[in-house]
Amino acid sequence: MLCMTQVPPQETASKPELLTAKEAGEALGGVSDETVNRWARDGRIACITLPSGQRRFRREVIDAILAGNTAA
Predict the structure, then answer these.
(1) Which of 29, 37, 41, 63 sits in a 20 to 30 Å window from 8, CA-based?
(2) CA–CA distance, 32 with 38 (Å, rounded to integer)
(3) How many helices (H) and strands (E) does the chain have?
(4) Which runs of consecutive H residues, i.e. helices, occur in 3-66?
(5) Is 66 helix (H, G, I), strand (E, B) or coil?
(6) What contacts 37, CB < 8 A, 6 or more positions away?
(7) Domains delineated in the chain
(8) Full-model pTM
(9) What does the alpha-carbon distance between residue 66 and residue 55 come to, in Å, rounded to a whole number?
């Protein structure tokens, strides 16, 4: 029988939570994923672009926007 190693909880906790455009839009109060992607293209919201071209948005950036920190 093979035993798979589990990742310790402290390692997973330090990784940032990444959201899809749809999830980011929902967190921002129902903004469409098209709008979130347009904001990313325009440089209005920071994102990570995957090799596939899809964008991911850090939870802390979304939270900063919700808190009124427009510098995020």
Answers:
(1) 63
(2) 10
(3) 4, 3
(4) 9-13, 21-27, 33-41, 59-66
(5) helix
(6) 21, 55
(7) 17-66 (1.10.1660.10)
(8) 0.73
(9) 19
